[in-house]
Structure formats: structure tokens, C-alpha cells
Amino acid sequence: MIEQVISQAKKNVALREYQHELLKRAESAQQSSYVANRYLAFWAGGYGWLIPVLDAAEIMPIPSVTPVPGTYDWFRGLVNYRGKLISVIDFDCLLTGKPHSTNRNDRLIVLSTNFSIPCALKVSELRGSFDINPKQNKFNQVNNHPWLDESHVIDGIVWSELSISRMMVDPIFLKAHPE
Q1: Is 101 helix (H, G, I), strand (E, B) or coil?
Q2: pLDDT tens-digit map of 32-85
Q3: In angstroms, rounded to a whole number, what is the distance separating the alpha carbons of residues 175 and 75?
Q4: What is the pTM of this model?
Q5: Helix H or strand E segment including 81
Q6: Count of C-beta atoms within a 10 Å radius of residue 175
Q7: Which residue, 64, 41, 54, 28, is CA-closest to 126?
């Protein structure tokens, strides 16, 4: 009789642990799908841009950047980010060709380590984040820029998804110094 009670108690504990584990997995799956549809919005080159939140490791004020001589204006230089050197790309300048400016709204978006090139984008203004429903508010740009994915109209503003992976393999991006 005692053995049956102990056996039943073990089953109840195992069932509770199993249910708890299922709950954690369900919450994790909800969080993953939530994050997968969340985009970081910023302003650069006079346009609104979006990148998946998962593509950004950190957002921070502009630290001290060490310039690298002989590079294009859009290659601002290098910064020490958590003990590693990463390249700083002035995204405004890369898009427009105009020399960079600095203002207090400038931010550095350190890109995820999932990308092959350790770098950060300097952007002129962070605009927050949006949840993008992939089934609505999207259209393809007339401009067939190789770094653009879909565009979305949110509150009357056009926001274009930036494909960082395509940007990082583009010869323009890979060539930081003139010949």
C-alpha cells in the first residue's frame, strides 16, 4: 500500500514537472514568434529603415571611434566593443555619400555576432521598434536596391527592411578603402 502511494506521488511529481516544462516551451515559442516579428526602426540617409531585433546585439551612444586612414568617409573606424574590435559604418554616409555629421541623437547599432563581419551601424536617429505583421502593410519598393527587402507603411511613413546579410556581401560594402 505504501509503495502504491509513493509510486502515485512520483507520477504526480513527474506529471507536474512535465506540465511545467511544456508551459516553459510554449512561453518560449510565443516569445520567439513575438521577437521574430519585432523590428528595430531607425532613420538614416533620409529614410526609415527596419532590421529584425534579433540582428542587433546592442544599441548604444557613439563611443570614441579610432579612424582608419585611407578609407572611405562612410567607414568611420574601429571601436573596442566588449574586448573585440568592430568596424563602425556611418550608414547615412554610405547611403548618401555625404560626409558624416554628428548630433546627440546618433546611435550605434552593434550587429549580431551571427553575421560574418563584426561591425556596427551609426544611424542618425533611433525611432523605436515595431511589430510587423508579415501579412499586412507591405509592398515592394519601385527602387530595386539590392539591400532592400519589403517595405511597410506605418503611421503614414514608409519603412524599408534592410537585409544586412545582402549588404555584407555587396562589393561596395566590402571595399572600405579606395584603390
Answers
A1: coil
A2: 444 458 999 998 888 889 999 999 999 999 999 999 999 999 999 999 999 999
A3: 10
A4: 0.74
A5: strand 75-81
A6: 12
A7: 41
Q: Percent of the chain having pLDDT more than 70?
A: 71
* 72/178 Cα distance (integer angstroms): 7
Cβ–Cβ under 8 Å, residues 31 and 47: no
Q: Report which residue type is found at 103.
A: N
Alpha helix segments (H runs only) across the chain: 2-36, 91-96, 164-169, 171-174
**Which residue has 549580431 as its cell numbers?**
112
65 — phi, psi (to 5°)? -110, 130
The rounded distance, in Å, linking the Cα atoms of 123 and 136 is: 27
Going from the C-alpha of 83 to that of each of 69, 80, 112, 163, the distances in angstroms are 22, 6, 15, 27
Q: Which residues pair with 86 in a beta bridge?
A: 79
List Cα–Cα distances, 103 to 17, 61, 122, 124, in angstroms: 53, 11, 11, 8
Q: How far apart are CA 135 and CA 157, in angstroms?
A: 18
